[in-house]
Design brief:
mainly alpha
Length: 249
């Protein structure tokens, strides 16, 4: 975090804002890791709730300063949404390594190599696509979204939004309350992760598929118990794998 803080400071962001920004981002990453490890939802996009939103609503645009606001557009790639955050994929990779009895140390080295190679390849593919087809054609409106947002913040500076912070606090209290109930009462039907991810864009499209999967699982367990459930699992894993293979091809 020290290297990242001074990297942001090097491009012009104040030390204090850079440090708070990264600390909030790390809290988000830890929360995503816990969500992925505990229940593995199909998405945890959490759009438009980046650290800059908490900073601006907590302190106001004038206190943050124009330079820091302008530089928030340079961190937009990492704070816009979290459905592709690498921490979930890394956790699943370590779980696969653990199941196979592979060395965690060697697997960590493989992840680091993949990050380096993937970053270089990603930059090349991204820039090549931009120049060949145009940014708006490849990336739609997201290419200019961060700068339109910056323009609004600079021309019409936001004041601190106490109501937004109260809403965040209320959401945290409800999540903790659901977590306590879920841990203390076996079979409690409402999971805190469901509350946290249900407002995401992807879940608004996938909720019926999730409901159907739950209903089928419930019927299998009610009629055949855990033995039938274990026999049925490979079939449904095959459905998931088939969708990904076809989509990938």
């Amino acid at each position: 975090i020290t290297i990242l803080t001074f990297s942001l400071h090097y491009i012009g962001m104040s030390i204090g804002i850079a440090l708070v920004f990264l600390l909030i981002y790390i809290v988000y990453a830890v929360a995503i890791a816990r969500i992925r490890a505990e229940i593995g939802p199909p998405a945890h996009d959490a759009e438009m709730i980046g650290p800059e939103m908490l900073l601006l609503n907590g302190f106001g645009a004038r206190a943050i300063g124009q330079r820091n606001i302008a530089l928030f557009s340079r961190t937009y790639w990492m704070s816009r949404a979290y459905r592709s955050h690498p921490v979930g994929h890394q956790l699943e990779g370590f779980k696969i390594a653990q199941t196979l009895g592979a060395s965690n140390r060697r697997f960590l080295i493989a992840i680091i190599v993949a990050v380096v190679v993937g970053t270089i390849a990603g930059f090349w593919v991204f820039l090549d696509s931009m120049y060949r087809h145009g940014a708006l054609n490849v990336y739609h409106n997201i290419a200019s979204e961060s700068f339109r947002r910056m323009e609004v913040w600079l021309e019409s500076p936001l004041a601190g939004n106490d109501q937004m912070l109260k809403d965040v606090g209320l959401g945290a209290v409800i999540t903790v309350f659901l977590m306590v109930l879920h841990q203390r009462f076996v079979g409690f039907p409402f999971h805190p992760v469901g509350y946290a991810v249900s407002c995401g864009w992807v879940l608004s499209l996938a909720w019926f598929s999730i409901f159907c999967a739950w209903l089928i699982k419930w019927c299998i367990l009610r009629t055949g118990g855990i033995r039938l459930y274990r026999k049925a699992v490979p079939f449904f894993v095959g459905l998931v794998l088939g969708q990904h293979v076809v989509g990938g091809l």
